[in-house]
């Protein structure tokens, strides 16, 4: 039987800076190469708040935000072969087509097959599957997980072990994979290395886990909110530093603590001043700084070029360099095998309808991750 349009509850972002509003949305059936997914749970990432704030140059409204979800395939469009009804999946904001120049390069996870339409809040055919009373609502990051039902291209779904609890592994759809992957894939931290992590939210704490797994010798965790320090230490941080407790700039404090600087630093906040600090706390000659945080429209990074002339390296990473379809299922297996925990990250669980509270908790510094369920 051909799938038809379904009614779905969703939290809609009508305009930048306004709270999300609960709506009943029409979700059209999946077209060729597309899949409709029933979302079971979704994390709330700082990037959702960033886009809602109006700072995202690609922000487009009205839209259904959310990109850290887990769900079950409800129906498939023509020609879909890699997933079937009932499969458990994690939506991917970084798809993996396997055939574009980027996928074939072996150098990056940034598949570009559908990047242009995705950035405009549209499906690859240039239209949207969401509407209210016939008025189109835009997709977000190709995922839109703040909706009971969403439609994604087949190449934007990682099929995972159905034994994995979706209320937990949804966090692998963004935050945890990003932090762990940044350490393992982008920086390639080695045993004994000294690491500094700036910002101890979901991303930074996952970078701490990644550094601990890589057997880093020293893991310096930095945040202005000291309530994050206990968990950072539990996950492997050897030192916790609050920049507000020091007279000197934080990069000087870290250089002094580490006999000249760290081997690797990770900026997990999205603050361009802190990105400079993260670069400048790296060791002369070889230290590398990885930018993970997302900064607002018009903001730029700066440093003295001498910092790079003298051997420091500035890099960035999206989704931890992880190729979603071929590599994410293994992160789920590693979680199931007990290699790392996700419970520690889930400080709050709320129904979808309370998504605005999840943003409040994030802005107040009270949550690591809120998981919304349906
Ligand atoms: P979060 O809000 O949960 O955590 C941010 C942390 O930074 C908080 O603990 C906060 O206290 C701390 N902080 C704020 N200002 C600080 C400062 N001046 N010095 C030190 N610490 C400071 O956010 P999150 O969900 O962990 O996301 C972090 C950043 O990573 C955001 O910018 C988000 O958009 C970005 N992000 C990027 C990717 C990617 O693929 N590159 C993926 C996910 C998230
Ligand atoms: N749209 C923003 C950039 C936002 C951004 O950098 N997004 C990250 C993922 S953040 C997940 O929480 C990303 O994947 N970037 C690569 C890409 O292709 O979007 C802007 O500045 O325009
Ligand atoms: Zn995210
Ligand atoms: Zn591709």
TrEMBL record:
Cellular component GO terms, alphabetical: cytosol
Cofactor section: Zn(2+)
EC number: 1.1.1.284
Catalytic activity: S-(hydroxymethyl)glutathione + NAD(+) = S-formylglutathione + NADH + H(+); a secondary alcohol + NAD(+) = a ketone + NADH + H(+); a primary alcohol + NAD(+) = an aldehyde + NADH + H(+); S-(hydroxymethyl)glutathione + NADP(+) = S-formylglutathione + NADPH + H(+)
Keywords in alphabetical order: Metal-binding, NAD, Oxidoreductase, Zinc
Top-tier EC class: oxidoreductase
Record-linked InterPro entries: ADH-like_C (IPR013149), ADH-like_N (IPR013154), ADH_3 (IPR014183), ADH_Zn_CS (IPR002328), ER (IPR020843), GroES-like_sf (IPR011032), NAD(P)-bd_dom_sf (IPR036291)
Gene Ontology molecular functions: alcohol dehydrogenase (NAD+) activity; S-(hydroxymethyl)glutathione dehydrogenase [NAD(P)+] activity; zinc ion binding
Function: Has high formaldehyde dehydrogenase activity in the presence of glutathione and catalyzes the oxidation of normal alcohols in a reaction that is not GSH-dependent. In addition, hemithiolacetals other than those formed from GSH, including omega-thiol fatty acids, also are substrates. Also acts as a S-nitroso-glutathione reductase by catalyzing the NADH-dependent reduction of S-nitrosoglutathione.
Protein name: S-(hydroxymethyl)glutathione dehydrogenase
Encoding gene per record: frmA
